[in-house]
Amino acid sequence: LDGRSAALSSLFAPAGVAVPAARKPRLTSVPRAAAKHASTTRHVWVALTARVLAATIGNYVVTTLLTALLARILPTTAAEGSMTATLLSLAIFPALVLTSFAVRSPWRLWAWMLATSFVFGSGVWLSLASGGRL
Amino acid sequence: VKEGFRQCMAWLHTWTGLLLGWLLFAVFATGTTAYFQDEITRWMRPEVTGQPSIVRSAEGAMRWLGEQAPDARSWYITLPSARGAETTVFWVPGEKDGAPRKRGRGRRSDTQAVLDGDGNKVAARDTRGGTFLYRFHFDLHYIPVIWARYLVGLAAMFMLVAILSGIITHKKILADFFLLRFGKGQRSWLDAHNVTAVTALPFHLMITYTGLVTLAVLYMPWGVAANYAQPASYYQQLWGDRQPPEPSGIKAPMAPVAPMVAEARRRWNGADVGVITVANPGDSTATVTLLRAMGGAIATRGPNIVFSGASGKLLSASPERGGAALTESVMVGLHAGRYADIGLRWFYFLSGVGGTIMVASGLVLWTVKRRAKLPDPARPHFGFRLVERLNIATIGGLIAGIAAYFLANRLLPLQMAQRAEWEIHSMFIVWGASLAWALARPARRAWIEVLGAGAVLYAAIPVVNAITTARNPIASLAAGDWLFPTFDLVMLATAATLGWSARKVHRHAAKLPQQRAPRDKELALA
Fold first, then answer.
1. Of B131, B166, B313, B425, which sees the most CB atoms within 10 A?
2. Residue B148, pLDDT score
3. Is 90 exceeded by the pLDDT of residue B93?
4. In this complex, do B227 and A82 lie within 8 Å of one another by their Cβ atoms?
5. Which residue of A has its CA nearest to B213?
6. Nearest to A133 among B209, B223, B227 (CB)
C-alpha cells in the first residue's frame, strides 16, 4: 500500500517535487532502470483509473442493487422499507468509496464488486420474480 | 500499513476536496445565509412591517384568491412564519383560463403573488429576497434545476467522502480542537482548516448527510423503484397524500377557513398552520388541506388535515408516521433548522460560517502547501495558477457578489422591468468581474483587491440602507425593531473580516519572498 500511495503522491505533486524517502516505493521486484520506470508509471495510472471507476460507477451499481434488495427484504411495509434503504444508501456509498481506496489491489476490488453485484442483483431479481411491485 | 492507509485517505481528501471545493464553497456560503432567509427577505422588502396573524392572513389570502383566481385548479398558500411578514400564494390555472400553463421566466408573476396580513397585494419592491440565496444553494442559477441538483448532490457526496477521509487522516483530532497558531504560514492555514473543521465536525457531518437526505430519492431512486412502479404511489403511502377529486362542475361557496385553522391547532397541541392547499376551489368537491408549520417541530414534514371546502367538515387527517418516514423528516428538519429559535439559529449560522471557512481554508491550503514546493515560485505551472485564480474568484468574488445582491435591492429603480432578476444578475456580474480581475492581476494583488472591494461593498450596505429607506438604525430602534440594526451589524462585521483578511494578505506579501513554511510529518499529510 505504501508503494502505491508514494506513486500517487509523486504523480499528483507538482512537477519537480522530490518524494520523501519514507514514502518511496518498496516494490523490491521492480528494477530501478529508467526503461522500466515508464511502464511502472503507466501501470500506476491504469490502476488508479480502475480504482476511481470502481469507487464511482462500480460503487453506484453495487449501492443501487443493495438498496433495491434492502427495500425488498426489510421486514416492514413497502414504503418504510424503501425509505430505510434509501437513507442507508447515502451511508453505504461513501463507505464503499473509502473502501475502494483502502483495498490494496484494484483488480481484487473489481472482483469483489462484480461478485457482490451478482449476489445482490440475483436477490433483487428473485424477489421481483416471486412478488411484483406495487 | 496503518500509515499507508492514512496517506491514502489524505490523498483522497485532497483531491475530492479540491475537485468540487469551489461549488461546495458556494453551497456552504449561500446555504448559511438561508438560516436567516426570512430575515433577509424582510430586510429586502423594507416596505413591509409588522407581524400578521395567521388566521387573518389565511382568511385574507382565501378571499384574494377567490376574487383573482376563482377558476384555478388549485391554490397554494404559504402563511407567514413566526419570523416572516408576508403570505405567498400561487395557483395552477384551470382550463377555462385559456392558454396552457407556461413554465419559464417572466411568467411567475402571472400565477403568484405576495400578500400582506390582510390579504391585500403587497406594494413592495420586486425581489426574491432571502429565498433566492436559499434556492441557489441547491438549484444554482442560469442552469436547469435538475442538473444543478445532480451537481450539488455530487459535490455533497464528495464533501461527505472528504469529511470521512479527513477524519481518518487526522490523528490528533482532540489536540487540534484547541490549536490555532497565527502567523505561521502554512501551519496557520492548516490550523484554521482543522479548527473550523473539527470544532463543528458534528455539524459538518450532519449538514452534509442530511443535505443529501433532502434529495435522496433523486440521487438514489432505486430503493423506491424496487417496490413501486409509480413513485407517486410511494409518496401517497408514505405521507398520506390524496389525489384531488375530479371537479363536479357544481359551484359551491367556500366554507370559512378560520374554524379549520382552529381545529388543526387544537389537534396539533397549538402548533401553527404553515401551508394551505385548496383543490378545486369554488367547486362542490373542493378540499382544503392544512399542513403544520415547519417552525413547530424538528420533523419538517408535519402532519396534515383535510377539510371539505364546501361544507368545512373534517375529511381526514394524515396517518401516524412510520419510523423511517419520521427519521427522514427529522433529518430534513435538522438540515433546514426551521424549528430553531433565535439562539439556536445563530448557532446554526455560525456553524455554517465555520463550514464556509473550512472549505475556503482547505482550498487555500492546497495552494499554500504546493507553493513551498514549486520548482520556480515566480512561474508556477498552469494547474497551480488555475487553482489559485479560481480560489480568488470563488471565495472573494461570491462573498462580494452577495453584497452586490443586497446593494442592488436598494439601488435599482423600483419600477424597473424584471427588477428581481436584475438583483440576481448584479450578484453574478460582480462575481464574474472578480474572476476577470483575478485572471488579469498578479495573484496576491488580486486577493487584496477582491477582498478589499468586498469589504467596501459590505460597509456600504448600512449607509445605502439609511439613505434609501426610512428604516435607519435610529428609527428602527426607536420603533423597537432589532432586525434592521442587527442586519447592519452583520454587514459591518463581514466588511471588517474582509478588510482584515485583505490587510493580512498585504502584510504577508510585504514579508515575502523568503518565508519558508515549517515542514513536519503532519504537514506532508495535510
1. B166
2. 96
3. no
4. yes
5. A87
6. B227
Burial class (CB in 10 A: 0-12, 13-18, 19+), A100: buried
How confident is the model over B397-435, as pLDDT tens digits? 999 999 999 999 999 999 999 999 999 999 999 999 999
Question: Which amino acid, one-letter code, is at B443?
Answer: A
Using a pLDDT cut of 70, give the percent of chain B over it: 90
Q: Are A79 and B234 in contact (CB under 8 A)?
A: yes
Question: Which comes out higher in pLDDT, residue A45 or A111?
Answer: A111
Please choose, from the candidates B417, B428, B411, B367, the residue with its C-alpha nearest in 3D space to the C-alpha of residue B392.
B367
Q: What ipTM did this prediction achieve?
A: 0.85
**B216, A63: Cβ pair inside 8 Å?**
no
Partner-chain contact B11 A12, CB within 8 Å: yes
Three-state DSSP class for residue B273:
strand
* Model confidence pLDDT, tens digit, residues B446-480: 999 999 999 999 999 999 999 999 999 999 999 98
Closest-CA distance of chain B to residue A117, Å:
14
- Asked if A79 lies within 8 A of B373 by C-beta distance, the reply is no
- Distance from the Cα of A59 to chain B's closest Cα (Å) equals 12
